[in-house]
Design brief:
The chain is an alpha+beta fold and about 130 residues long. Helix content is about 45%, strand content about 25%. Strands 1, 2, 3 and 4 form a four-stranded mixed β-sheet that branches. Helix 3 links the parallel strand 3 and strand 4. The radius of gyration is 22 Å and the shape is elongated.
Length: about 130
């Protein structure tokens, strides 16, 4: 038991502690990088859709699934992982979605941008004061 405690103390010595802290920081940085691409794409699409006549403020959420990379750079290609995230669904919440024409235009735009079928896209009206 004493040997185990001595090994644990040695592992958490000053150089060992720095190594653990650096490893944790790297994990956090790389974990954030994977999420960043989807979030920035969602923001870019929301900005473009908000510019559409009658749409008002728009928020977008994209659902993705991991697939094996085909060697082509897609929207969400993984960096050296051999996988890529492929959009499989999208939801948009828009202030102007009460108008059926605006709702249809938003749906068509999301389908075109993400390569999705209309059945994989949902456009909903924002509740009063819901989008900020």
């Amino acid at each position: 038991m004493r040997q185990v405690l001595d090994r644990m103390r040695a592992a958490f010595s000053l150089p060992g502690a720095w190594l653990i802290v650096i490893a944790l920081l790297l994990v956090l940085v790389f974990a954030g990088m994977g999420q960043e691409s989807g979030t920035s794409l969602e923001a870019r699409i929301a900005k473009a859709l908000s510019a559409m006549d009658g749409a008002g403020r728009v928020e977008v959420v994209i659902r993705v699934r991991e697939t094996h990379a085909t060697g082509q750079n897609g929207l969400f290609s993984g960096q050296g992982t051999g996988t890529e995230a492929v959009p499989c669904g999208a939801v948009a919440v828009a202030e102007g979605a009460d108008d059926p024409i605006v709702r249809m235009q938003l749906t068509q735009a999301l389908c075109a941008l993400l390569g999705l079928q209309a059945s994989a896209v949902s456009v909903m009206s924002a509740s009063e004061g819901g989008l900020q």
